[in-house]
Amino acid sequence: MQILAIESSCDETAAAVVADGRRIRSNVVASQSELHAETGGVVPEVAARAHLRVLIPVVRQALRDAECDWDDLDAIAATAGPGLPGALLVGLNAARGVAFARGLPFIPVDHIEGHVLANWLDVEPPPLPALALVVSGGHTELLLMTEDGTFERLGGTRDDAAGEAFDKVARLLGLGYPGGPVVSKLALEARERSLRLPRAWLSGSDDFSFSGLKTAVLRMVQSDEAPPAAEVAWAFEESVADVLSKKAVRVAEREGVASLLVAGGVAANRRIRALVRERSSVPVFIPPPELCTDNAAMIGAAAAVHPELAVGPETAIDINPMPYRSRARRSG
Ligand code: KG4
Ligand code: ZN
Fold first, then answer.
1. Whole-number Å distance between alpha carbons of 107 and 96
2. Which residues line ligand 1 (CB under 6 A)?
3. Which of 103, 238, 318, 327 has the most CB atoms within 10 Å of its CB?
4. Can you identify the CATH homologous superfamily of domain 2-117+292-326?
């Protein structure tokens, strides 16, 4: 079973060929980060136009890398949401067009589920039930994944997503976009490592909050005795990594899960990866960094577990830009 998957929900145009939902045959990602560096963030219309320009070459490259012909494919998948509407439309409609032309089923995929399923690519599958911490530019979610693969949302951010906080702090420090990698790199240069920024524990709930931390950074960099940017970056990363790892580990232990999964662009963060691994008493699964940030292989992995969502050309299907939380599947 081979799936061609397309991802275009934000600022990466990606296509991949995935076999049996587990093996990556090819995985091509065209990042728009240089395009968005000028504005310090993604401009939706600019992103959508860039997807239009590069999508077809990216799909062709994915087929070439996989040494795969159209006839070797069993289904076409694409991210249906959540994401930027204009950006989603490009990938979804291209995928629908190809599926129609080739007479193949089309499988719409939830982007968040894709991030989680990246943990199934090219490795031994994690044992279920699992707790998934999904941390990206748009999401910070704690999801309980039951044995049948369905999700129950336990909590998430009440304001900024973890990646959004990294991106905003990068802007405050005059660094580039995306903020995560540059803030993390600068943090390594901190000579003094004693600065402390607040942590929002929101005790008694499985939610997160990062807007207070962002405001604390703003005050700090605007103060007369502003510490060096590297020290601020270090203290900020420590605060985010401390809260994310401690809460995820605590919830995983409380729920008695068999594994703890971390996923999404922010899961590429060195400090977060280390702290979760250090603190967890349950087995931890985190995809390699290139499978944490947006890619299409994860969309292929998620499509493979949802053959029941496959539709033919006669079925109308639309993007679903809304976040996962508004339509979380509740078990029990
Ligand atoms: O999953 P992703 O590629 O796109 C979304 O679905 O949002 O996540 C992108 C986010 C950005 O906010 C970026 O700053 C953050 O992931 N990110 C990181 C790192 N690499 C990417 N954050 C912290 N440390 C990193 N190394
Ligand atoms: Zn993502």
1. 9
2. 10, 136-138, 163, 166-167, 178-181, 184, 264-266, 268-269, 293-294
3. 238
4. ATPase, nucleotide binding domain (3.30.420.40)
